[in-house]
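Handoff note, outgoing to incoming analyst
You'll be picking up this chain. Sequence as last confirmed:
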Amino acid sequence: MTIMPRVKRLPALLLVLSACSSGGEPGPEGWKRVGNPDAFTFHLPGDFAEQSAREYRNATTTLTVDFGQDTDPLTSPAPAGAERSVDSVIVEQYPARIVRTSLPARQRWEVAIHVWGFGQDENTGLTMSLVSSVPLSSSFTNRIFSTIHFAAR
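Most recent structure output, in case you need it:
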């Protein structure tokens, strides 16, 4: 099954495309830089606490990071009853997809990005997933994604 991007998401896509093409934006005031400086960094709001090197949480949202050759490419079908949209974007010069999934009946909203084709091996990927008990706005998630920066190879 092919899922086409929704046209109404175009302004959000332009934000991600323009922000990411410049090498990752700095985070807004009060945000902190996290990640692995030898591979990639990004910014999160100050209320996100690091749980591990791959997980950050605030009161309503968990962000997980998967980096390497076996990252989730975000191509699996949506769960039963879910609404899903998929958008293709560019992060710096690398191809990426953003998948937004909502299950309001289960109070679960997820927005994830998968970027691939960087690093020592062209198969290296980065998947970041935000899962929340409250709806995640496109402006909030795109702001996080626009701060992704990859270290020079």
